[in-house]
Recover the amino acids of this structure.
């Protein structure tokens, strides 16, 4: 047996797909050629990787039956047979005539040699696992690329060399944390334990610059938490504040209530 034939056996062994005769041939050949053990180890590692990637995926119920049907209807001609037919076309027809006249026993090596499609199925399984892995990676990438703008802004602030933050505790026990970066000119407010605004109302963000409040947008609270990016450029020393306004924000562009969150940045 050559190394290529043994590679077929090793793939079948890793997939637990060998017949008892091929299983015995596999072990006997490995004992006679310990230098081929790396092939076995590589296939075992590949199968383990496939199981790790594809374990959460469940194939169609008819996949096995379909695959076996396709294998049964496909002539299993080895590469040597193809070469022989290509070089001596007439010999192929002659062989068929001889076979119809009297059965000819195949050499023992042909009977016990591993089927050529085993390695192909092994490669196909690896490709399918790769597709599954790519699908999972694509889903993760899609989730990363479609992060909310406020989350992206918060990450940019936190990665800045001058990132700062300050937290205040509210009367009802909730907390509000302002994150900002002077170099980025951006600020994000993160709340926890703050109830959602009442129906018909919104929370409005403000930069208070000296004595002048500048609207920085409205935000909603979901599940008791919120991450809201303040619109507009932040200036050094601004105070970040939140007021309760009518739905959509103050119609006058000025606060209509006292702020219930006030966080100085200086």
């Amino acid at each position: 047996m050559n190394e290529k034939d043994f590679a077929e056996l090793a793939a079948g062994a890793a997939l637990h797909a060998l017949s008892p005769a091929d299983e015995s041939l596999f072990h006997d050949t490995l004992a006679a050629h310990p230098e081929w053990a790396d092939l076995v180890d590589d296939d075992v590692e590949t199968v383990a990787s496939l199981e790790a990637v594809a374990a959460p995926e469940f194939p169609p119920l008819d996949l096995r039956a379909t695959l076996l049907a396709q294998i049964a209807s496909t002539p299993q001609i080895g590469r040597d047979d193809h070469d022989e037919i290509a070089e001596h076309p007439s010999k192929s027809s002659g062989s068929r005539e001889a076979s119809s006249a009297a059965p000819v026993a195949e050499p023992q090596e042909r009977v016990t040699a591993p089927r050529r499609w085993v390695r192909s199925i092994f490669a196909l399984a690896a490709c399918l696992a790769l597709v599954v892995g790519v699908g999972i990676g694509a889903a993760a990438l899609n989730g990363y690329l479609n992060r909310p703008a406020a989350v992206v802004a918060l990450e940019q602030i936190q990665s800045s060399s001058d990132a700062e933050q300050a937290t205040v505790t509210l009367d009802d026990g909730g907390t509000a944390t302002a994150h900002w970066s002077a170099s980025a000119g951006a600020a994000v407010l993160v709340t926890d334990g703050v109830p959602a605004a009442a129906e018909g109302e919104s929370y409005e963000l403000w930069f208070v610059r000296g004595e002048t409040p500048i609207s920085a947008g409205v935000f909603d609270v979901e599940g008791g938490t919120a991450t809201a990016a303040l619109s507009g450029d932040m200036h050094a020393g601004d105070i970040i504040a939140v007021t309760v306004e009518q739905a959509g924000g103050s119609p006058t562009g000025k606060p209509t209530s006292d702020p219930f969150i006030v966080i100085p940045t200086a």
Summary: Residues 91-114 have pLDDT under 50 and may be disordered. The first strand starts at residue 164 and ends at 169. The first helix runs from residue 3 to 14.
